[in-house]
Design brief:
This protein is mostly helical. The protein folds into two domains: 1-70, no CATH class; 83-129, no CATH class. 71% of the residues lie in helices and 0% in strands. The protein is built from seven helices and no strands. Helix 2 packs antiparallel against helix 3 and helix 3 packs antiparallel against helix 4. The chain is elongated and about 50 Å long.
């Protein structure tokens, strides 16, 4: 890979650039700019498609910007790699819920609660119903 000469192209990226962009994307998402976060993460994932943390952050950013189909795809990819990721199950369930797909949402809410007894997950799972 060529050295980074200040270019933001995929070929001119360094591992440091990727970490900086990942952290900047976290900050953008926390500051209410999910579309800005997606733009940064697109570059990181283009170079590191196997990076599950970047995919999970991009899924959250898609969800926050109401891009529900891309969010669903990213959460699904994360769960293919980490089937025991309770947060990803919960977030995918919320994505399905926002798409008016209650049966799929319920399944993933329950998986999240089974993997992690987080009170929010347990409440969403509604095991009593």
């Amino acid at each position: 890979m060529p050295e980074n000469s200040g270019s933001r192209s995929s070929r001119g990226r360094t591992p440091e650039t990727d970490v900086i962009d990942f952290r900047a994307a976290e900050q953008l998402l926390n500051a209410g700019d999910p579309r800005g976060a997606v733009k940064l993460l697109d570059e990181v994932i283009a170079v590191h498609p196997e990076n599950t943390a970047a995919r999970l952050l991009r899924a959250r950013a898609f969800f926050a910007s109401a891009q529900l189909r891309p969010a669903e795809l990213e959460f699904t990819i994360v769960l293919e790699r980490e089937p025991d990721n309770a947060f990803a199950h919960f977030a995918l369930a919320r994505t399905y819920q926002r798409q008016s797909r209650p049966d799929q949402a319920k399944r993933h809410f329950r998986l999240a609660a089974a993997l992690d007894p987080n009170p929010e997950y347990l409440k969403a799972a509604r095991f009593d119903s």
